[in-house]
Design goal:
single chain; Creatine Amidinohydrolase; 382 residues; 3-stranded antiparallel β-sheet; alpha+beta; Creatine Amidinohydrolase, Chain A, domain 1; 6-stranded mixed β-sheet
């Protein structure tokens, strides 16, 4: 599918990156490569400059108008008197034919290339994300990719919860099949289940007790009974490259009434926030509404004994080719637009009591949103 170019006739767009790491470059080319290559948009034409290793694959797989040979351009540069042509010399050679001297580059464009291009007389303008504004509004196909990754996520978390349900409790720890049930064991189960569905997970969170009070603690060691355990799973499809994202909080054992109230508070706040998501809604106001609700209910946020507690992260973020992308539902906020896919994930964290985070992904529609998550919100596993 041909994508609209960012560059205007007098400005060329330039990437020098590996599309395996750079989602904007992958979006522009739909080509995965582990090593850096040159991508140019010149007067509406999209060009790839590829090594001999990747030429044939790029010609058959990439979304581009032309694929040029790096080695052929290298020989051409040498004939023009460049003794040892660099990547920048190759870019310069291609651009000279267009007589363009102004370049639009991503904000993370390598400094070493930027300085050399400036030395050659080019003017560079960096652009922050979203580099391609159309990335923020998802097509029906992109939504299907995200939903497919989400179904895999739900199956993996369901398998993990099934193990917790079968676990026995010994000395405030969970045991399964004769051994203590650890965070590492459950994360491996989740990650393998995801691999079976052609999804790749990194930094999966299964954190219980005090560990859960640090939102990005991935969890380690024995899983506690009688305390909340946060699951946060956000794999990428190895087929489509799109992410999914879901959090659930569960407990096995005796439930402290204060912790049960904490769970209900987060669940109600999350569902209220989802109801506010629609085209034109202000992400900052949605986030502030949750903060105000928690404060009025007595759940204060602040530093206590050198550790943050309460609600101290954003309510949501865009999901797509990156796990965190525009727009934001947070204190900085964004105006939501039909076609955005965003998470809604409030949480409360109190060392000593425990922590709760609940997260769904939703597709913003004209009059509201469609929840892309189809997984129960159940606190007590029995």
């Amino acid at each position: 599918m041909k994508r609209a170019a960012v560059s205007q006739p007098e400005v060329a767009t330039l990437f020098i990156a590996a599309s395996e790491q750079d989602s904007n470059l992958y979006y522009a080319t739909r080509f995965i490569a582990p090593d850096s290559f040159i991508y140019l948009e010149i007067k509406g034409e999209r060009l790839l400059v590829m090594s001999d290793l990747e030429m044939d694959r790029a010609k058959s797989q990439a979304s581009a108008d032309r694929v040029l040979s790096y080695s052929e351009l290298e020989q051409k540069a040498k004939k023009k008197g460049v003794k040892e042509p660099t990547t920048v010399d190759i870019v310069d050679l291609v651009l000279k034919e267009s007589k363009i001297r102004r370049l639009l580059v991503p904000a993370n464009f390598p400094f070493i290339y930027a300085t050399r291009l400036q030395e050659l007389g080019y003017s560079l303008k960096p652009k922050r994300d979203p580099f391609y504004e159309q990335r923020v509004v998802k097509t029906a196909e992109e939504v299907r990719h995200i939903e497919a990754a989400q179904r895999a996520t739900e199956d993996a978390v369901a398998a993990a919860h099934a193990v917790l349900r079968q676990a026995t409790i010994k000395n405030s720890e969970l045991w399964f099949e004769g051994a203590v049930l650890t965070s590492e064991r459950i994360k491996k189960l989740i990650n393998v289940k995801l691999m079976e569905r052609d999804c790749v997970a990194q930094h999966t969170i299964v954190a219980g007790g005090e560990q859960a009070c640090d939102p990005h603690n991935e969890g380690s060691g024995p899983l506690p009974a009688n305390r909340s355990i946060i699951f946060d799973v956000f794999p990428r499809s190895a087929v489509s490259r799109y992410f999914a994202d879901m959090s659930r909080t569960v407990i096995r054992g005796v439930v402290n009434p204060e912790l049960k109230r904490l769970y209900q508070m987060v669940k109600d706040a999350q569902e209220e926030a989802i109801e506010k998501v629609k085209d034109g809604a202000d992400g900052m106001k949605i986030h502030q509404g949750i903060c105000t609700r928690f404060e009025k209910a007595g759940y204060k946020t602040g530093l206590v004994n050198g550790r943050m507690q309460g609600y101290f992260h954003g309510t949501g973020h865009g999901v797509g080719l990156d796990i965190h992308e525009s727009p934001r539902i947070s204190r900085t906020g964004s105006l939501l637009q039909e076609g955005h896919v965003v998470t809604v994930e409030p949480g409360l964290y109190y060392p000593g009591m425990g922590a709760v985070r609940i997260e769904d992904m939703v597709l913003v529609t004209k009059d509201g949103c469609r929840n892309l998550t189809d997984f129960p919100k159940v606190f007590e596993l029995d």
